[in-house]
Write a structure and sequence with these properties.
alpha+beta, Uridine Diphospho-n-acetylenolpyruvylglucosamine Reductase, domain 2, Uridine Diphospho-n-acetylenolpyruvylglucosamine Reductase, domain 3, 18 strands
């Protein structure tokens, strides 16, 4: 039978233009921002409009043993939504409803909304949804939940899982299960909601999310400090986090500083080995005192320059500069994007170790970090047309992973394992924990059709 004949019952069961089978139109759905070179060609793309559409697609897939790859906005950085040959890509991009309840401070959200749109809807009621990945303007909330995304403010406010109260999930047999709900405290049964947050589409497809919101963030005071050595900068991070809980504590190394300066011409110090961007959102007087104390800590650690501002425009300019680091470095060549995290006391060892790997492999590695929680993003730059350089870049990638594990860290803090990092999952988890993961996967997806090749 032809592919179109095989798909006829599915096309008939779904609304018009839900099913895309044209290869040219499907090409945009084959990979995420990781640009996985091994991405396959789908049998079809299902642009679902509701939970029932997803159920219909998954039931069809289960009946015909067809792989299913869930997809949000395609902004992922680990190959988590790379298509496999002959799969159904189930896209949630058209599922975009949101309802905010200011009384319970919750929002019921469909997965296709962008993170920024959730923030904007909450702000209309004087509320705030804190998780803020650098890609918040174009990443989907469903993808954020699937990877348990973090962001710049998670050093104080936590990550996506801290704000997910409930989910609707379509399981591998097409059953839609309701988990949790708009309750701040609920310990009835196993914590299944948390199980699906960060599961990367391997256990089910998320079609509805109940989010916790909090009162709007206060105006932020900002401090920017530059350093002549990586050691001085990372030591400052430890001194700050030892007694202060800033709302942002971000790190940029010399390579990322220069890449951003090339793009923005905002006057960043090109000679600095490192820059910290730190914010406090405490009440005004407290924030001023907190920023002043942080400035003293920076100077005690030999900061070359310390600049403080309490006006929102200046603070937002430096926040934007930090958010632009990945696209700025990306202009220098193709990237292998790391997402390794370590306990905060090991941050200095990780940053110095990455610098040593960069020198040993003779490849450029820019390092940016959510320094306050030890989550770093080493960005390995290479020319894919240069076979030798490409090989050295991939060796460096592996060495950074191994370094993070050796320092008691993780192979991913917020981007997910996807397909790019799964080779290191056994070493990170160990055999017993890996087997437990596989037992859960097999119990919920016995046919192995949900996002095959990702994570496991």
């Amino acid at each position: 039978m032809t592919a179109s004949a095989d798909l006829a019952p599915l096309v008939a069961a779904l609304p018009a233009d839900c099913v895309i089978a044209d290869p040219d139109r499907m090409d945009a759905y084959r990979r995420d921002r990781a640009n996985d070179p091994h991405a396959g060609v789908p049998l079809a793309v299902i642009r679902a409009t509701c939970t029932e559409d997803v159920q219909t697609a998954v039931r069809f897939a289960a009946a015909h043993r067809i792989p299913v790859v869930p997809r949000g906005a395609g902004s992922g950085l680990s190959g988590g939504s790379s298509a496999v040959d002959g799969c159904l890509v189930v896209s949630t991009e058209r599922m975009r409803k949101i309802t905010v309840d200011p009384t319970s401070r919750t929002a019921v959200v469909e997965p296709g909304l962008f993170n920024a749109e959730v923030k904007a809807a909450a702000a209309e009621h004087g509320l705030w949804y804190p998780p803020d990945p650098s890609s918040y303007e174009f990443c989907s909330i469903g993808g954020n939940v699937a990877t348990n995304a973090g962001g710049l403010c998670c050093v104080k406010y936590g990550v996506t899982s801290d704000y997910v109260l409930g989910l609707t999930v379509v399981l591998a047999d097409g059953t839609a299960v309701e988990l949790g709900g708009p309750r701040l405290k609920d310990v009835a049964g196993l914590s299944l909601t948390k199980l699906f947050v960060g599961s990367e589409g391997t256990l089910g497809i998320i079609t509805r999310i109940v989010l916790r919101l909090i009162p709007a963030q206060r105006p932020r005071a900002t401090l920017v400090a530059t350093f002549a050595s990586l050691e001085d900068a990372t030591r400052t991070v430890l001194d700050v986090t030892r007694g202060i809980r800033p709302s942002m504590l971000e790190f940029m190394d010399r390579t990322s500083i220069n890449a951003v300066e090339d793009l923005t011409r905002m006057g960043l110090d090109r000679t600095a080995e490192a820059m910290l961007v730190i914010q406090s959102d405490e009440p005004a007087a407290h924030a001023a005192a907190e920023i002043a104390h942080i400035g003293e800590l920076c100077r005690a650690n030999h900061a070359v320059e310390v600049f403080a501002a309490d006006d929102p425009e200046t603070g937002e300019a430096f926040t934007t500069a930090r958010r632009m680091a990945i696209p700025a470095v990306e202009k220098k060549g193709s990237l292998l994007l790391e997402d390794v995290g370590v306990p905060v006391p090991e941050l200095g060892a990780l940053v110095r170790g990455v610098a040593a790997i960069s020198a040993a492999r003779d490849v450029t590695i820019a390092v940016i970090a959510h320094a306050g929680d030890g989550n770093t993003h080493p960005l390995i730059v290479f020319d894919p047309m240069d076979a030798d350089q490409s090989a050295r870049a991939h060796l460096a990638y592996a060495q950074v992973m191994d370094l993070a594990i050796a320092l008691g860290g993780t192979i991913t803090g917020e981007h997910g394992v996807g397909r790019l990092k799964k080779a290191w999952l056994p070493d990170y988890l160990g055999p017993d924990a890996l087997e437990l993961n596989r037992r859960i996967k097999n119990a919920l997806d016995p046919l192995g059709i949900l996002n095959p090749g990702a994570v496991f």
